[in-house]
Amino acid sequence: MPPRQWKLWSLPAAALGYVIAIDLIAVTITTLAVRATMTGPHAGVTSSEWAAFAVLAAASTLHLESARGIERRREMAANTSPHTNLKCLWVFASLLLLPLSLVVPLIAWSYLYSWFRVYGRTVAHRKIFSTSTYVLASAAAAAVLRAGGLIAEPRVPTSFWTLLVVIAAAATWWLVNYALVIGAILLASPEATAREALGELSDQLVVCAGLGLGVAIAAMQSSYPWVVPVLMVTVLALHRDLLLPQYQRAAGTDVKTGLANPSYWASAVPVELARAETLRSTVGLLMLDLDKFKEINDTYGHPAGDQALKAVGESVRAEVRQGDLVARVGGDELAVLLPGASETEVLEVAERIRDRLATLTVSVSTTGTQKTVITGVPASFGAAVYPEVAATMDQLILAADNALLTAKRTGRNTIVTARPLPPAVGERTDQPVGD
């Protein structure tokens, strides 16, 4: 592809400048590291360091090849959140064993090999940027190691103080890399929320575990190098754990909105009700239906409607509490499960969502490259709280659904709370009316 057609140039101006700046800083760090190795007091690379580099490069390659299928699935599912991987394991191990001038080639080799064997035809500038973030993170961690007195390689912990220094270096490596990636996501995808940019905490915990395993591999490599292959089983098992949360999220995620799908929703509600019963707590439920969504589809087309629906889902998630579950349960019908919420809290959340949707501005594609702006996507709400208005899952959903019907019949863009249902479960009624 000619350089002028690279996807890099399609980035927003701020993101483009950010990516290029990080890449240039990484190149500068690499140049300075090589110069320091060639002209420093201990100029040159020792044969033992070359041997350690060869072992780590081979182990990293074997790891990438063995986990190639896992990484390809994870790469295909990447979105506006950090794409975590376990290359950090070998990079941090090399940082403890080798000069920075050899750490950088190991990083470059890992991403180059992954590019050809794992990622395939993908956006090159993202992988170059990822390589650069690894270089910057490694340089920052190396500075922490030197500041803590660990200057000569190998820099594995041999005392309580050196252990603290290594932990501080690992934390610095993680924080620098994480912050650089989040900055790129927010600049390249202005529509991404902070919650989406931060990604899943479980993924970051796996990365931290990878850094810890890197310390163990460095210690083994410096003292008992023949034990390193045994740790490969642990590495691959840890890598597979990266894929499990993705499978779980994909199985319960609506493709168009990124919200929970009806299947996941149906399994989550009884679990929350059972927990509430055990804890003598409450569960709030909001059902909301977009008032004029059919008009958007009819006027601008279904692709535009899908974009508007995704924006609605993001807006709803931005207004709920931490731990609340938002699901798409129908074409233009969403549901919010609020564990532990009182009726007052449910209504407060509903009012925030209603106000935000009423003023929501969405830029959607219509025909060809044309775009139009949709202002206001109002919704009607039905609210119900367990156990005040229902004793079972079916009763709770029916109560909220009936309240939603009342809201739509009495003017739309309103919130109606459900009253207790009659004993007959499954008999639909339009009676629940509230404020």
From TrEMBL:
Record keyword Transcription present? no
Q: Which Gene3D superfamilies match?
A: 3.30.70.270
Tell me which residues make up the GGDEF domain. 281-420
Transmembrane recorded as keyword: yes
Instruction: Cite the entry's keywords alphabetically.
Output: Membrane, Transmembrane, Transmembrane helix
The source's domain of life comes to Bacteria
Coiled coil regions, renumbered to chain = none
Q: Where are the transmembrane segments?
A: 15-38, 50-70, 90-116, 128-148, 160-189
The record's PROSITE patterns line, in alphabetical order, gives: GGDEF
Q: Specify the protein name.
A: Diguanylate cyclase
Which organism is this entry from? Kribbella ginsengisoli
